[in-house]
Queue: 4 jobs
Job 1
Amino acid sequence: MTDHSDTENPSASGRNIVQGSSEFHGLSREIIWLVIKNFLLNIVTLGFYRFWARTNVRRYLWEKMHVFGSPLEYTGTGKELFLGFLMIILVVFLPVAVLNVLLSMLGSPMISGLFSFVIALLFFYLIGVATYRARRYRLSRTRWRSIRAGQTGKGWTYGLWQLLLNTLMLLFALILPYKNLKLWQIKMQNTHLGDRFFVFDRDGAARQTLVTLYLSYAVVAIVVVIVYALPFVAVAMMLGLEVFNGTMSEAQIQAHVELNLQNNSGLLTMFGMVWPVSLIVFAIGMAWYKLKETRMLVALTSFEDLKISFDATLLSFFWLFLGNILIVLLTLGIGLPFTQVRFARFLANHTNIEGQLDLGVINQSADDDLTSGEGLAEAFDMGAV
């Protein structure tokens, strides 16, 4: 985090200049009673209080996050989240369920199969829509110095992009860097504070960034493939190449395998150990790549005269990830707000903001027309924060 104090400097020209950094002032122990209250009320209301519980946690997280010395403000309500969830259940999921029952009564396997395919396609499409609209809702309920944040663009368009790129990934996995860059670009170019929008790739460095990401992704892919191939190499060494060249009968192969299993127990142990190791290598490799990708995408994003960077290390990321996993497991999910506090502090500590912001050029934006909350995200249980 940039090490300088947050300041506000009304200059001689009358401009209202702010500079500084992001800081998170929340503490895990401060939300213990909030967690207990949310847990008990969820039990009493059979889970319906979760919309208000989520709102309570967000208000705490927002007010503890300070940017240039001023806290964020969250103005969303539990009622909005509940109404959004209810609307999606009635408009989307209930009609689909009824239609599924009616088609199953027809007894046509072809029609049922086609309907299941369409529903699966719709499901993956709606995940993208839900992601975008949930982000739009959260931003529309965010204030900083009484200035409204927001997000323009259509969730339906974002959902199509995500579905298309995810489908292409099934055919060509190396499209991942382009997919993440494109989706990041769509979100950031439509994000605004007041009437001023964030800018993606102001300096025209996106193409070079994409090349660097592809090289990094290729390195990870090669290492992972090599490690995953080791168990098969061990099997080949253990059995001997003659098993695979087709010159032995089935009975001879069985006898040969049994003999080699007895004489090469060490290689068999190696085979069993390599799989867990390969999974660890895969996790470390993908975490390294994701951090590198995040740092580069953040560096391509700017707002007015501010430059933004992200400097998290692999060690700090794993400390955050493993700690949060343990908290969720040991508390059976009840301690999720504690993980959100840790994540907010992680973001603030590793996000650097350089430059000065002239508040005088930022005008208030119009109210967002959203009247309900993250219906799709709630239905898919995607609205943790």
Job 2
Amino acid sequence: MKKVLFLIHSLGHGGAEKVLVNLVNNMDKTKFDVTVQTLIDSGVNKKYLSPDVRYLPGIREFKGNSKIIGAISPTVLYKFYVREKYDIVVSYLEGTSSRVLSGCMDPQVKKVAWVHIEFDDKRKYTRFFKSEKEVTAFYSNLNKVVCVSDSVRTSLEYCANKHFSNAMVLYNTVESDKVLRLAGEPIEDVHFDEDELKICSVGKITGTKGFDRLARIQKRLLSEKIRSHIYILGVGEDQGKITDYLKKNNLLETYTFLGYRENPYKYVAACDLYVCASHREGFSTAVTEALIVGTPVVSTCCSGAYELLGKNNEYGIVTDNSEEGIYRGIKEIIVSRERLLSYKKMAQQRGTLFSKEKTTKADIPPPSSSPGTPIRSLRNQVFSI
């Protein structure tokens, strides 16, 4: 049995953290002894870990923890956090966990990085490393680099200015059966007006997610006499700023923050449209879940959008990554009830491709998989090194 350690900054309420929990819970425990080590002991997702997954807490959360971790030598960090012998160590999410893994000097340990974001500039690529040369050497010397979408891999290789032969693409693991079951639960705390166009989005309320864009778009929709209501599921630092804008523009009655919900799926399923207004993503878990519950999607052309919604808007609308693009995408999909219902059917069809069975076995061939590669073997390749 192989001992596998996953390093992650924390198990907060982000999509990647949820995906890690899904991944480790579904690993074959007759073959793998699985441990999750957080650098910071915080996050709502740790309670969802299966009892057969060991959890090792990191240090207590405090302001500026990432900066302090970034200032300490990688070898010191690795010795501090990794105190046992493992066959495979995985840095899950780029950033501090990658820096810790770069401090592993044991040649017998197989090293894997699981990359979730699209690197749109060199600054993000080199963050937590001293130089571009250092971070490129880190990825080059790993046994495997797992990218959550083909565009994430492309951006990684573009920033490094080299092809990584050790890189592969694997889509996120989604607990589709759980999502569908919870989506069917009744909603008792929110009244949805059937005469309104119900638009929703899920995620941390930060600048990256573009919820401020949705606030300004809502103002435009209402000015055009479109009865719409936007619901945001999540918490975050930008909520106050957006709320100020809503107050100034008399939008508080039609733009609702629902906060963090353990079951966001029933709200998404009850809405007419899901909008991903993000400036950047890796492979959006929230969009994947919206498709699974059959809610039509409009998304910016961030990483993974075309892989989820089709190159020609077959399963949803992919827009320019701009406020105007999102607005036009919403207007395009709501042009008629029939069009919205058609995209609802296509969303349900597309969602079946990202079921737990298919993603845990890697039954969906990523665009980067080589011809003739047995699809079912893709995920196994990560841990058979």
Job 3
Amino acid sequence: MNFEFSEEQLMLRDSVARFIQDNYSFDERQAIARSQEGISRDNWNTFAELGWLSIPFAEEHGGFGGSAVDVMLVMEQLGKGLVLEPYMATVLLFGGLLAKGAGAELQAEYIPRIIEGSCLGAFAYLERQSRYELADVLTSATAVAGGYRLDGEKVVVFNGANADHVIVSARTSGKQSDEHGISLFLLPTDAPGVETLSYRMMDGQKVANLVLKSVEVPAANLVGQLDRGFALMQAVVLEANMALAAEALGIMERLNAKTLEYTKTRKQFGVAIGSFQALQHRMVDTFMDYEQTKSLLYRAVCALGDEKEDAATAVHALRALLGKTGKRVFGEAIQLHGGMGLTDELDIGHFAKRLMMINTTFGNGDYHQSQFNALRYNNTGAAR
């Protein structure tokens, strides 16, 4: 396999890296996190001007027509800066559902607005009882004259606090956990009957719970086919899992670099603690965790770009490994920094919190391991 990036991809990566270095210091990030919205609209407009919001969209909609590799490069650099702006929620989830499943009219109306930065979106899929199962949906969509009436509750909606539009999964037929019978609907967050409760997560992100009470949605706002929204959700979430792993890789790289730098300056018994062989072994272990994760990330990206490959198996393997390596990397970073590694004044603890949140988004390591086993092996335990 060729893991060399093209000149255009290197330019894209470097542009994001320069922005993080010049405009997204830890102090600036913390100021954004403490603001009322929890994001910077100015930064979001800059993302649009630099073309980052257009990367995954087709050229016919004004997009860049980029690949999974391009998304990976952007997300890795955003991870290094602990960026709070809703690239994942708006571009990859909300925009991904529109790009893969919406009709031409909805695509023409909303995708250009995402690209220009004027539309902030969200994907409301999670419910209190559903944990990691996308098909566990109790929110109902009842057919009425001219459209549907939505009733239910969605929790932990990423960017739900700032989104002006949201795509909601709702059950139009079947039982609670049936894959068939789920449909997706686009609606404005200020529609009559929508109640929003926003709050901050431990990693600084602002999310929201949405309560839907007899919310009227026109039939034209159906995203994808009626009763067949599950496959569309699966496809978009699969790519989102890869993007989250890329973000985590950027975080792991920064944690390793900062820990190495600290062990060269922190002294005990008159010498730098980095000279202690036991600590050197531990840092080598975290470096290997980073390299193993990067290798599986590249493998998953290649699989997503090849129709002959089993992309789901590769992505589940990646997320299962990340559940272990990410925990070891942030654990060792905190241990080697000592108690100060958990203080709000140092960025180490914030990197760790973000890694923990990534490990619970769309399934933790154990969940992805079980999904990998189900795909990779048949009931007799023999490899497929």
Job 4
Amino acid sequence: MGMKQRRRIYYSASQRSEIWDRWQRGESMRSIGRRFDRQSSSIFSVLSPSGGIRPSERKRSERSLSLSEREEISRGLVAGRSLRAIAAQLGRAPSTISREVGRGGGRDRYRGTVSDQAAWDRALRPKPCKLACYPALRRTVSRKLRRSWSPEQIAGWLKRGFPDGEQHRVSHETIYKSLFIQARGVLKKELLEHLRAKRTIRRSRHASLKRDGLGQIKDAISISERPASVEDRAVPGHWEGDLISGARNSHIVTLVERQSRYVILAKVANKETASVVTALIKQARKLPRELYQSLTWDRGKELADHQRFTLATEVEVYFCDPQSPWQRGTNENTNRLLRQYLPKGTDLSRHSQAKLSAIARQLNERPRKTLMYQTPAEMFAERVAATR
């Protein structure tokens, strides 16, 4: 008894267009599949050949023969008309009709619809990739990817370093396409492992990222009372913090300075408030007072003893509204970057403080688009120097 063949699913051009529209709006493959009453795997088969990057719309050259012209050629051949007569009727050069009929199998085998599809297939000549044309540029991009730089960081750094050298610059979209569309064969597939998100296709920038709100804090000072100078990042020294969790009840404190995006990681024994507050006090005492003026936290109970922290450091603590993690957007974004090094579900307690400091240093030495491709380490060092 033979193995049962899975029925192949086909989508029309309009359905494929809708799939791409929904994917670019940030819908998941499962959600898109429900719209068509199909499994998410069938949606993946549409998205994966181009790596989740929507292919550009194909356009026929005005000089190319149209389908209707090819059908007219086919009818003319069946009627026994000469190639020159067909060319005159269509307003085309006889040599054009002769080449078309020759490519289509000759007078006896030419079919308009078949030849039109063959012409589309021949037109699928991929544009030479810039990374394939410039080996030195390709090697530079590969080195930066191995250092866990994002394609956007690489592109921004190259633009900043080589403003006039076209052969030394490349867009982040070209890097993504070279990684996700393996038919290009330019960047090795193994380099995908160095991207923050371990995906085989690129996700839409509008894809939702959700996080649950946490508990209640006694005597919490609301973020609404935080000075306006903190909000607009005009003054350095204002931090956002959180606790990221792993397997076996393991946790790490993450801190990020709002203006420079400078990151500090601190090892904690557990998520009890005594342990977390002690770690925060220890980190605060390593910084100049001018560069630690406030701390914004979510409603996690690990900072229930925030008053002890403020008493020891003179740093005011502000708390986000319930279920409003976007009020600490800088820290939330940083936590997503950190998951490249500290994946969910792993035991975070096995990382020493030295290892955590090395991870933070690597993040701080990445150029950031929001800093005009300056690194957080460079900007924070400037702020430290200004306090001396």
